[in-house]
Amino acid sequence: MSITGINEAINYTMGYANNAVKKNTAKSSFENHISNAANSNNTTNISSRHLVLHGIFGETDSEGYTVVGAWGDARTNTSTTVYKPADFDKNNPVHRVKIWDSQGNVTERDVNLNEVNVSNCDTFDFYAYSCYLSHSGKCPSAMQNFMSTHAHYAGEEGFGKSSYGDMFAKTDWTSVIKSLMDMQYRCGNIKGYWDYRNFYDYLKK
């Protein structure tokens, strides 16, 4: 898999069955976001940036945790994988998140998805929540929308928050989504506007 997209906005849609990546462009300068890919060793090395993605979508480990999302951020050389536990309770949904930094150090947390406030959470809780929304069918496009929303947050024409530390900062993601939604409208991309408008409306309800 190659990394592309300098000087264009790139949205990556996770291919649940075959880890396919779908590319859409819009008028902006976002760059370099990768979604869910893996090889036979359960990681994918992006050699040009030394980026390693962990996990195969749908794979279950020895402890009963199933991968429901895997994402690499080429700006920070970080990798994030979201797992659904074997004892998952839809009334009290919790996902486990593992974050690999550029040095390979791992940070792990359990995220109670009922407690995620997308108007005041960090990148990793927002990603876990988006994985949950897509995987559960509550909002199938949530993971794709997360990718482009985070690209806007990190991109030069967006909020410019592109460091590893920024990924842990609590953020009002609804405001970021609204900014992206408004940008799509100004650019005349009505389909893009409604894609983000629907996501925005779901998160605000």
Q: Your description of this structure?
A:
It contains four helices and nine strands, in the order βββββββββαααα. It has 205 residues and is an alpha+beta fold. The chain starts with 10 loop residues before the first strand and ends with a helix.
The number of distinct helices, counting runs of at least 4 residues, comes to: 4
Low-confidence stretches are 1-41, 44-48
Mean pLDDT: 78
Radius of gyration from the alpha-carbon trace, in angstroms: 16 Å
Strand residue content: 15-25%
State the domain count: 1
What separation lies between the terminal Cα atoms? 37 Å
Q: Features of this protein?
A:
five-stranded antiparallel beta sheet; alpha+beta; globular; 205 residues
What's the layout of helices and strands?
Layout: E1 11-14, E2 21-24, E3 33-35, E4 43-46, E5 51-54, E6 66-73, E7 78-84, E8 94-100, E9 106-112, H1 123-136, H2 142-154, H3 173-186, H4 190-204
Antiparallel strand pairs: 1-2, 3-6, 4-5, 6-7, 7-8, 8-9
Helix pairs in contact: 1-2, 2-3, 3-4
Short structural description:
This protein has 205 residues and is α+β, with helices and mostly antiparallel strands. The chain is built from four helices and nine strands, in the order E-E-E-E-E-E-E-E-E-H-H-H-H. The longest helix is centred in the C-terminal third of the chain and has 15 residues, at 190-204.
